[in-house]
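User: Structure please.
Assistant: Input sequence and predicted structure:
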Amino acid sequence: MFQYRWFNALMALGCTQVHIASGDVVSGDDAVFGACALTLDSDQGLEFLDLDQTTGRSVDRIMSEFGAGGDFEGFRRATAYQVLTMISNAGFDAPNLGMTIAIAPDPAFAQFVTMTSVVGSFGGIRISRGTVLDEPADDRSFMVALEDLVNPGSNDFITAAISASHFDVSGSIGHWLVRDTVPAPGWVGVLIVSGLAAGGRRR
């Protein structure tokens, strides 16, 4: 956990606009995808690529880009459990797989809007939809979504119940991709080791 906190602090310094949803879920930079392109969950030690980075591609196309030199090298498809745990760590009630939970407009609305901006939303609307690794049937994937219906008389909702085809290509559906948090940079480790060594010499 110590290395994750160091990493999150350093990434936050480089992110021009850090959105804090709640707790240890924050936005961070990526060397390839740019500023605030990651959602960092320090409790799980995971980095989620924002959903708007993966729209316009099918599941099959996404999976073909995980290898060396691919557009998403180092990432993998997240499980529903990982995504729902991240949402829970951000302070929301998360549904079980196959269910939907309504989010009352007040007082959770502002926090919900912040959350959709952190994980990536589409076309100026506050809807964040992405496929996950879990498959209810051949060539279909569950989709975890956060949807702000804008209408003040309607509840927003989080769902983990929608199935998407592996062959679908959509500008309003992304894919939840994840990778393990990178350990603290080497110079941080050097500073820590140097401090321990200095302490040893003082004895």
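Confidence is low (pLDDT under 50) at residues 1-22, 186-203.
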